[in-house]
Amino acid sequence: MDDTTLVSRFLRDGFVKLEGAVAPRVAADCARLLWRETGVAPDDPATWTQPVHWVAGMAQGPFAAAPNSPSLHRAYDLLVGAGRWEPRYSLGTFPLRFPHEEEPDDAGWHIEGSYLPEGESWYFTNLRSRGRALLMLFLFSEVGEEDAPTRIRVGSHLDVPKVLEKYGEDGASGLALAPDLVAASDHRPLALATGSPGDVFLCHPFLVHAAQPHHGVRPRFMAQPPLMPAAPYELERADGAYSPVEIAIRRGLGQHT
Questions:
Q1: What is the pLDDT at residue 101?
Q2: Burial (CB count within 10 angstroms: exposed 0-12, middle 13-18, buried 19+), residue 175
Q3: pTM of the predicted structure, to 2 decimals
Q4: Mean pLDDT across the stretch 8-12?
Q5: CB 92 within 8 A of CB 223
Q6: Could you write out the DSSP letters of every residue in 178-243?
Q7: 83: left (phi over 0), alpha (psi -120 to 50) or beta
Q8: Fold designation for 3-41+49-252
Q9: Which pLDDT belongs to residue 102?
């Protein structure tokens, strides 16, 4: 995918899929280490007794290498801006979903929160996406349509700025935002984050997405870390040097110049 196509798809859809962004051996090593964390046997479905295994941050060598491939660095520069993102040398969290009759309790439509104000129990988001430059989805298993792929409302990143605008710099919690986010993006088409080990979805921080039940036969291994900003996003730049993330927020507010 050339640079122009990558940026235009991101602005239109709110995400881009980079196939093979993580080298096959690195992705395989990550999967091996994640299996070890679950404590269950890859070749024995009888041990897969939970619908979701949550794994926190992982910083072993493969997880340090995964977000630092040349193609990913190039994409970070294109979407966030050169010098405007923080390198990361770990991944997490990991919602590892297994085939199971039990329905997940975390399948509602949402955007990711990024900061926790004192006294609050739900993470907050604000119009400048404080604390998050991108949402990233790293696949470490084959993920087909039956394997609990993340559901995405295509283009929903353009619906969210108007929802957030009234909350100002303080922002609001995911719990408070959810009803308006769901209503504002209800007209959007659906996409599924399917792919192969090493594929990465780079998503606008305001992309509305959701988990879903696992109706397949193979576990889905995925990381959903943020790319952290080196400086806050700015929606008024005297030099007009807006990143695609900022351009999308401005478009969502009706500002097209």
A1: 79
A2: middle
A3: 0.96
A4: 98
A5: yes
A6: HHHHHHHTTTSPEEE--B-TT-EEEE-TT--EE-----SSS-B-EE-PEEPBSS---S--TT----
A7: left
A8: Jelly Rolls (2.60.120)
A9: 75
